[in-house]
Amino acid sequence: KTPIKLLVLPGDGVGPEIMQEASRVLAWLEKNRDVTFDLTYDLVGGASLAEYGVPIRDEVIEKAWASDAVLFGSVGDPKWAHVGFDKRPEIAILKLRQELGLFANLRPAKVFDALVDASTLRPEVVRGLDIMIVRETVGGIYFGEPRGIETLADGTRRGINTEVYTTGEIERVARVAFDLARKRSNRVCSVEKCNVMESGLLWKEVVTDVHDRAFKDVELSHMLADNCAMQLVRNPRQFDVLVTGNLFGDLLSDLASMLTGSLGMLPSATLGAVQENGKRPALYEPIHGSAPDIAGQGVANPIAQILSLAMLLRYSLDMQAEADLIEQAVANVLASGLRTADIMSEGMARVGTAVMGEAIVREM
Amino acid sequence: KTPIKLLVLPGDGVGPEIMQEASRVLAWLEKNRDVTFDLTYDLVGGASLAEYGVPIRDEVIEKAWASDAVLFGSVGDPKWAHVGFDKRPEIAILKLRQELGLFANLRPAKVFDALVDASTLRPEVVRGLDIMIVRETVGGIYFGEPRGIETLADGTRRGINTEVYTTGEIERVARVAFDLARKRSNRVCSVEKCNVMESGLLWKEVVTDVHDRAFKDVELSHMLADNCAMQLVRNPRQFDVLVTGNLFGDLLSDLASMLTGSLGMLPSATLGAVQENGKRPALYEPIHGSAPDIAGQGVANPIAQILSLAMLLRYSLDMQAEADLIEQAVANVLASGLRTADIMSEGMARVGTAVMGEAIVREM
Ligand SMILES: CC(C)[C@H](C(=O)O)[C@@H](O)C(=O)O
Ligand SMILES: CC(C)[C@H](C(=O)O)[C@@H](O)C(=O)O
Predict the structure, then answer these.
(1) Comparing A29-38, A78-87, B93-102, which segment has the lowest mean pLDDT?
(2) Which of A38, A306, A350, B210 is deepest in the core (most CB within 10 A)?
(3) Which of A254, A259, A288, A345 is most worth mutating to test chain B (most B CB atoms within 10 A of its CB)?
């Protein structure tokens, strides 16, 4: 079989150590399944700044285009804050999203049965929670022009950013959300702020239009972003798939993740458009940050990284059985009582990054 | 004594019924304290649309300028959604903020001891919670130009909104936050998204600068908005005063309110700049919406409206003792077991809007 080309970008902070555990799973798959991986490693974020003085090199973008998928660790070490706005570690992920056209960020917020008590919410409010947030990631206020800080004649300065959404950008991410809903509970809630923003007004109109034209079988509702922030706390299980813009998606998906009480457990996928050659660029990363405070100590939770690999198998390689296998192995290891520090609770066995990774592979 | 001029704007939905209960408190104050009120009532939101075809008349803005403070109910009845973006009921509140320069929205998120169990969060996470969110309300993406929906030559449409913050706008709201912190736990956390937005970069810089120049005794920290959404769920009691822009403030303050489990209980104040005549325009309103689904049934919770009046006494009239008295009366009535439907729990006595209002006045 032709080997599957993966670009592996561990990043900074805990990135490299958790990526190590995902590699174990890759090795297991090569040994036990009819698949081989052609792995290319490279530096991004703080690691790239240290070596090359930039958060990401153009060469890395080219390697990403040449791969079947990108497995990403994490970036954002604040020790690089001084290098300036256009060289911050985060540029690595923003540039990958933009250059590869990775417009649909899929972020599951799922409560693991074994970890219901890790949530700050009452167990009866979050048990069984399983939301999928689809966040637009190459448009909106993250990238709109004009932007910057300008100085007026009188010395006043103005910080400016522009939210822009086109009908096409809204339509394609809405389609991803509706498609996902069909494989889940068949409900999509579209989130904007159409009562104060025209970009939200257009968002709502286009999502409705796509629904009426092509997804009439899916239940569609609309919610204002402020109300959504509240509803996620009041009764998060009312949601199945949420679809929203870049900025609202940033806040709401982090909020939804925290509801689960297990940030270190949650993966994400970011998908681009299917290309003429049939390939679809895609990047998989944990939703948590690079946690520089615990980096290098071997205590970080590798589960989000391992589950990101499971999403890669599911969405880029159509290896559903193997994705299921990994997810089941994670659930079993948790049920057996193993815990990294971030999810530790009384009566459980506290283990480090490597022991957790090994246990999951053994369980497979 | 010269009567205090109040403009009373009940709005639509439950607005009029809960305002009725605030009026009871005003009447009590006139009878039992050395104060008289000169009350002017007018229509806004859905009520104004029904009568005049517009969400607010210029005349109402003039009356607001002529008053010592505005007591506002709620607007937003969705039955007016069809009238179009520039005539929606919400315009009433947006225009009042903008025309009166009401730039600092103070939103306390406080957990009442008697209502700890109304929160979806675990009691040990929220007991004693007392946050004050200071949200900028006349700038940012709500009002920035250019804005609108444009059609390109190829038929594509683009929705556009612009976030703009000037040094002056940031400085004045930061000062309000630092001043408030001094009367509380002396800590301010400033929230933006400076890792992707230049307007956030400027925000952070100006807040830091104001701090270093004039408020060095107050503890200042900075947090990204997505992280803040998470931290509010993970450990809300870490915060004292939060200061943020219009859009982040909209989501984060609603989120913080919901943590308390008693949305129907929370008031807000929105303050403008002190004028040459020494007056400071100010508007007081419940944070909840107009809840058209329960309007007219006499079941809405009047406490947020009554506590909004308490904030009016505190911030516009410097009647601290009377504000304390109202707040204590509310706490006592709750402790006695009276509950409106929204905060009802087992073993408590369910009452309607009027009975709750009467009970609070009696307790005073
Ligand atoms: C690192 C940062 C630029 C990024 C974002 O804001 O999109 C992150 O918070 C995320 O959600 O992936
Ligand atoms: C009614 C609406 C325009 C308003 C806002 O978004 O500011 C409301 O949500 C609020 O928070 O006061």
Answers:
(1) A78-87
(2) A306
(3) A254
Overall pTM surpassing 0.85 (yes/no) = yes
What is the rounded distance in angstroms from the CA atom of residue A334 to the CA atom of residue A235?
Answer: 25
The whole-angstrom separation of Cα A217 and Cα A215 is 5
Chain B residues within 8 A of A164 when measuring between CB atoms: 158-160
Domains identified in chain A and CATH numbers: 1-103+272-364 (3.40.718.10), 104-266 (3.40.718.10)
Catalytically active residues of B are: 142, 193, 226, 250, 254
Residue in A144, A57, A124, A62 with CA at minimum distance from that of residue A92: A57
How much is the pLDDT for B150? 97
Please tell me the distance between residue A38's alpha carbon and the centre of ligand 1 in angstroms: 28
Q: How far is the CA of A247 from the centre of ligand 2 (A)?
A: 17
**pLDDT tens digit string along B224-278?**
999 999 999 999 999 999 999 999 999 999 999 999 988 889 999 999 999 999 9
CB A162 within 8 A of CB B161: yes
Query: How many Å apart are CA A88 and CA A73, to the nearest integer?
Result: 16
Closest listed ligand to the CA of B254: 2
What 3-state class would DSSP assign to A318?
coil
Q: Consult the annotation and say whether A293 binds a ligand.
A: yes
Inter-chain CB proximity A161 and B203 less than 8 Å: no
CA distance linking residue B251 with residue A228, whole number of Å: 8
Contact A235 B165 (CB under 8 A): no
Give the position, in ligand 1's atom list, of the atom nearest the Cα of B224: 9
Residue-by-residue DSSP string for A198-245: HHHHHHHHHHHHHHHHH-TTSEEEEEEHHHHHHHHHH-GGG-SEEEE-
Query: In Å, how far is A206's CA from the nearest CA of chain B?
Result: 10
Q: Give the B window 133-162 contacts with A, CB below 8 Å.
A: 141-142, 144, 147-149, 156-162
Residues A215-268 have pLDDT tens digits of 999 999 999 999 999 999 999 999 999 999 999 999 999 999 999 988 889 999
Residue A16 pLDDT: 96
Judged by DSSP in three states, B111 sits in coil
Name which of B88, B111, B135, B162 to mutate to probe chain A: the one with the most chain A Cβ atoms within 10 A of its Cβ: B162
- State yes or no: pLDDT of A81 exceeds 80: no
> Going by CA atoms, what residue is nearest to atom 8 of ligand 1?
A250
pLDDT of residue B348: 92
Q: A100 Cβ partners below 8 Å, 6+ apart?
A: A61, A64, A65, A70, A272, A281, A283
What is the predicted pLDDT for the residue at A323?
97
* C-alpha of residue A157 to centroid of ligand 1, in Å: 26
Kindly tell me the sign of the dihedral angle through the C-alpha atoms of B204, B219, B110, B287.
negative
B113 touches B79 (CB < 8 A): no
Taken in order B53, B58, B59, B62, the sign of the CA dihedral is positive
Q: What is the pLDDT of residues A187-196, one digit of tens each?
A: 999 999 998 9
- Angle among Cα A228, A162, B97 to the nearest 5 degrees reads 65
B250 Cα–ligand 2 center, Å: 7
Asked if B226 lies within 8 A of A263 by C-beta distance, the reply is no
The packing angle between helices B246-259 and A225-234, to 10°, is 20
pLDDT tens track for A102-143: 999 999 999 988 899 989 999 999 999 999 999 999 999 999
A205 has pLDDT over 80: yes
Which B residues in the span 75-114 are in contact with A, Cβ-Cβ below 8 Å? 76, 85, 88, 90, 94
Q: CA nearest B156 in A: which residue?
A: A167
Residue (of A98, A251, A248, A104) closest to A174 by Cα position: A104
Please tell me the distance from the alpha carbon of residue B111 to that of residue B299, in angstroms, as a whole number: 22
- Cα–Cα distances (Å) from B35 to A333, B4, B317, in that order, read 68, 8, 11
